[in-house]
Write a structure and sequence with these properties.
about 180 residues; mainly alpha; about 85% helix
Length: about 180
Amino acid sequence: MAVKPSLRELYIDELKDLYNAETQLVKALPKMAKASSGDQLRQAFEEHLRQTSEQVSRLEQIFHDFGEKPTGKKCLGMDGLVKAGAEVMRQDYEDSLMDAAIIGAAQRVEHYEIAGYGTAKAFAQLLGEEEHVSLLEQTLNEEKEADQKLNQLAEDINSRAQQEGLRASAEEHGRARSRRAA
């Protein structure tokens, strides 16, 4: 009869998932920054890349405390989100529309991370791992702040994307009317 996993093993599994997710994100964030047309959005991604590197270090510290290696699990959720973000960046969108699309992809990532870190923090609390709780809470707060920053940027960027779309639509309508009149 197989031994059933414990909460500690589930916690370590969740941490491995988060570790792989963060390492995937370290590779994806520079691409998102490069695809951004606006300086503020690019800077937000660059800042989050710096934070993500620190978050990886925090996870490594937790693994060190457990005497575990932070490898061995691929985060399929982040893999899908990164692939979806890459697909967005392959689209032929105008600048503000591309930025709006990238923000949407980035917020999906943030929400995934918020859920994962919330779960890991709850497990750490139940296991009495107070130092881990503190480290995970710090990262959870950073993820929430990143999501809020993206929300703030989206307000302006989405509005610009809409205005650009309305202008393009009006120009196309004018060209079509000119062709019909000719």
